[in-house]
Design goal:
The chain is α/β, with parallel strands linked by helices and about 220 residues long. The chain has two domains: about 1-120, Rossmann fold (3-Layer(aba) Sandwich), CATH 3.40.50; about 125-220, Winged helix-like DNA-binding domain superfamily/Winged helix DNA-binding domain (Arc Repressor Mutant, subunit A). The chain is built from nine helices and twelve strands. The strands form three sheets. Strands 2-1-3-4-5 form a five-stranded parallel beta sheet, with helices on both faces. Helix 2 packs parallel to helix 3 and helix 7 packs across helix 9 (about 190-205). The radius of gyration is 20 Å and the shape is elongated. The mean pLDDT is about 85.
Length: about 220
């Protein structure tokens, strides 16, 4: 997923760029409205995170301008303005969600995930997934590769479904723990690596193009090339 972060406070911008990248997102950043407008028009971003207190213009004005220019990506407003009137104004004038500063990173990531799901319903609600010759029937809880059914445990199926729904996107161990196990286990556990190893042994068997890739120091990605 490709994000545009619009934040003029360099310390916050640096923190969010690093944190979002570690969470598996591709992040571009801008510290003013003019740069943000150019990047948004050029970028094709999946979502924008916009601070309202920009040095050259109000963030609301930027959002309205981007909407006029046809940028329809969902916008998470990030602002120190905490009043109800400010939040309502932000949501009524182009924002899709509103988070006040100071904020918890976990909440920002959760809001961002929900925002992306709401604006990509086909990917989150699809009942049949396919990546190359790997197919998942979500309703029947069945998976096959090259027409041959895979004998997966329930947990392996959930893990494979998550990888397929995020095909082409790097997902970190923390993201997998959150989405597949609901963070019910310790974050330093090797349960993700163990399940990936077992899943790879069933999905990427000899004679098939490998699909599950390890991104060293980051996480995993399922991709067909």
């Amino acid at each position: 997923m490709h994000l545009l972060l619009v934040e003029d406070e360099l310390e916050i911008q640096s923190f969010l760029r690093r944190s979002l990248s570690e969470a598996g997102y591709q992040v571009e950043a801008a510290g003013d409205g003019k740069t943000a407008e150019r990047l948004a028009i050029e970028g094709g971003h999946d979502a924008l995170i916009v601070d309202l207190g920009l040095p050259d213009q109000d963030g609301i004005s930027l959002i309205l301008r981007l909407r006029e220019l046809g940028v329809n990506a969902p916008v998470l407003i990030l602002s120190a303005r905490r009043s109800v009137d400010d939040r309502v104004r932000g949501l009524e004038q182009g924002g899709d969600d509103y988070l006040t500063k100071p904020f918890a990173l976990a909440e920002l990531l959760a809001r961002l995930r929900n925002l992306l799901k709401r604006h990509n319903p086909s990917s989150s609600n699809a009942t049949h997934l396919r990546v190359l010759d790997l197919e998942l029937d979500i309703l029947r809880r069945e998976a096959s590769r090259g027409g041959e059914r895979l004998n997966l445990t329930p947990q392996e199926f959930v893990l494979l479904e998550y990888l397929c729904r995020n095909a082409g996107r790097v997902v970190t161990r923390s993201m997998i723990l959150d989405q597949v196990w609901g963070m019910r286990i310790q974050p330093d556990t090797n349960v993700v690596d163990v399940h990936i190893y077992r899943l790879r042994g069933k999905v990427d068997t000899e004679g098939y193009q490998p699909l599950i890739r390890t991104i060293r120091g980051v996480g995993y990605v399922l991709k067909d090339r």
